[in-house]
Structure formats: structure tokens, C-alpha cells
Amino acid sequence: MSDKCTTCKLCDNVFEHDNQKFGLSGVYKRQYEPWQLLEGKRNSLVWIYGINQAFNEGEYDLDYLLPRGKKWKKIELDGRSLDKLEDCFIAKNGKEKVFKNEKYFKKFNTVSPILFELLGQDYGVAHTDVIRCGSVRHKPEVMIGKLFEDIVTNYSDLEGNEQKIIKDSWNIIPEKIRKNCKKYVEQQLNSSNYEVPRLIICHGNPASKTIREILLSEKEQEGIARLCKMSKIDYVPFYHASLKKGDKQHSITVVQMEFMHDKLPNVTKRSIGYLIDGLIKDLGILETRDKLLGTKSNYKHGLLV
Predict the structure, then answer these.
(1) Is 0.90 topped by the overall pTM?
(2) Of all residues in the chain, what percent carry a pLDDT higher than 90?
């Protein structure tokens, strides 16, 4: 990795105890700014937002923090430069796809073959995350590299209310990090370096929550939930919103999908994919792409044929 690395200080202090501060100080060390993380073409019409990149960016002892039946393998850190992000899905021969996290991205082929086909293509599909620091799990101990009991060694001596307060403070660490990172998501969406996507697919609740907070007021969220006869917007599968960028108002459709854990049945994944395929068709994304590229796609029932 180059010596020209950027860092972030927003999460240097996400937990305090006994006059000590704990956080992600010095964890983010990449050759691009946090807001610049976009895997795929910057002109992509569809963006997928995940939760966070699943690698051990803090280089913590995962076997101690997250013990399991077998040892954790050393996970390669992100040494890519900014210019490499645009072509990160395309092999040198220009045909096959390559992935830093193959297991993760290949799940999208089950969801929607057309979505998977367009990953990394011009005016196609790009991927990013709402939390920019990488961790193999969305848990406090894995994100900051410390176990709760190693920090709060006097937990059993605390009164019941004190125990609750400090445990609650620990449990909201991922949420604090998500809120801090929201700044970078907003910066990216408003940057002149990136086209505003027509369709955003939120993969997991932290992603859905972040995009909602940016695109919708609380009143708008309540209105959409009522319109869809849901108790809250979390349960709405998709909604339409807009983003003002410069002097132009951009329409964006947002899909809120469940995180694809290993036990999620393929039929559930493909059901979500049919919704996504339908929105791609209704929004005229392939037609727009063809017009911009001067080509003609064969599109039928959610597949390239």
C-alpha cells in the first residue's frame, strides 16, 4: 500500500469508561477518502448500499474477539487506489467479473441476474457501504477491537442502573459509527464527481436507515408508511424520493431489502429480485443505458437474453 493514505477521526471516541476513550482511531488507512468509496463506474444508474466492508481493517485479533470452531484467516486489507475502484469488478481480459469478496457479490446473481450482469459496467450497477471502515461483523467488539469485559472490568461492582447505562452505551456503538459515516454518504451523493443514481438498493437495515435519513424527513417517512398501510417505513419494500443537487431535483427510487445472511432461502432472495427487475423496467433504466451507450440490450423477464 502507498504511504499516501487518508484517515478519519469521526469515530475516535465512541465509548468512554473510567476516563478512557475507545474508538476507531487510525483504523481507516486507504488511498482514497471515505466519501470516495464506490466500487464500479461513477456514472452508474443503480447503486447498491451494503453495511460495511467485511474485512479486518483494524487488524485486530479476531480469534480472541470473535472465537469460533476454526481460526480466522488473515484478511487482505484494501490497498486499492481511487482509480482502481472504477474497474474493480472487471478482469484484465475485460470479460469475466472479479470480486474482492466473491461470496458476498455472487449472492446478487441469485437476487437478480440482470443486476449482477451490470455490476461494474458503464451506466450499470455500482456498490458502496454506509459504514466505510471494514469489520468482519457488525458488532462493537469487532469494530473497535476490544471486548466489553476487558474495558469495563468493574461491571459486577456497578449498581443495576449503572450496569444498564454502560451496557446500553456499549450496544449502540455500531449505531454511533453509522451516524458518523452518514456524513460521507451525503458528501458522495452531492459530489459532482458522481452521477445521482436512479435506483438505490439498500442491503440491510443500517443501509436503509441511512438513506431514509438523507432523502426523507420524518414527516415524509410517516406519510409513506401510512400510504403503504405499514406501522413504520422500515417495512415498506420500496419508495420514491428526490435529491436536490445544485439547482436540479433528481428522482430516486429506493429498495429496502433484508440482509442476505447465509440462511436466507434463495426463493426469498429471488422474490426481492423480481421487485428490483420490475423497478429497473418501470424506471426505464436499461433503455436509458442503451441511449447513453448507443447500444441495444435484450431484456426479458429480468434476464439478458
Answers:
(1) yes
(2) 76
